[in-house]
Design a protein that fits this description.
The chain is mainly α. It has one domain. It is built from 6 helices and no strands. α1 runs antiparallel to α4 and α3 runs antiparallel to α4.
Length: 184
């Protein structure tokens, strides 16, 4: 696979993670360099690891995964999005929950990287340097997510808790888009 194709694949796979990072930063759920690093690192790690898992699994389990992958991604994004919306409407909470920690971080990392698993299954049928491809996907996702979190924080500082609600809705809509795309 030529380097340009690998780069384009990496950027395409990173888009869900970038959107989630932007929403997390804008909602106030992920503030500061450490939180941005945790979120970006995990998104990059999962985006790099899932194609490898898919490549190793090969075509043997492709049919099983493709039957439910969109439902899993939809459910995970809906759960995290609902938490953010609930927190945005909760007047008692001053600081929203940090999605760069704990269960939310793992759920988001898995949900945004399920497409990468499917890509890995496809790559197993081609002659590719899987290590170089996975590394490129992880690095591109890390960089773009890092930038998106910080850009989101700037937007969120202007609009406050409304952005947490908007961020939760965006996550749910990403899940819905994934579901609808796969059900067509």
């Amino acid at each position: 696979m030529p380097a340009l194709e690998i780069l384009l694949l990496a950027v395409a796979l990173a888009m869900d993670a970038v959107t989630v990072s932007l929403a997390a930063g804008a909602s106030g759920c992920t503030r500061g360099h450490r939180a941005a690093l945790r979120l970006s690192f995990h998104f990059g790690l999962f985006q790099a690891g899932m194609p490898l898992v898919g490549w190793l699994a090969g075509s043997q389990i492709a049919e099983l995964i493709s039957a439910v992958d969109h439902w899993v991604a939809f459910g995970l994004l809906l759960v995290v999005g609902a938490r953010m919306v609930r927190s945005g409407f909760d007047r008692a909470s001053v600081q929203p929950g940090d999605v760069s920690r704990g269960t939310s971080l793992i759920l988001l990392s898995v949900a945004t990287s399920i497409d990468a698993l499917a890509v890995g299954l496809g790559l197993s049928m081609l002659r590719v340097d899987i290590w170089r491809t996975c590394a490129a996907i992880g690095i591109v996702t890390f960089i773009l997510s890092w930038v998106a979190v910080h850009a989101g924080c700037r937007v969120g500082a202007r609009f406050g808790k409304r952005m947490e609600v908007a961020g939760g809705i965006v996550l749910a809509l990403i899940g819905l888009r994934i579901l609808i795309t796969h059900l067509r």
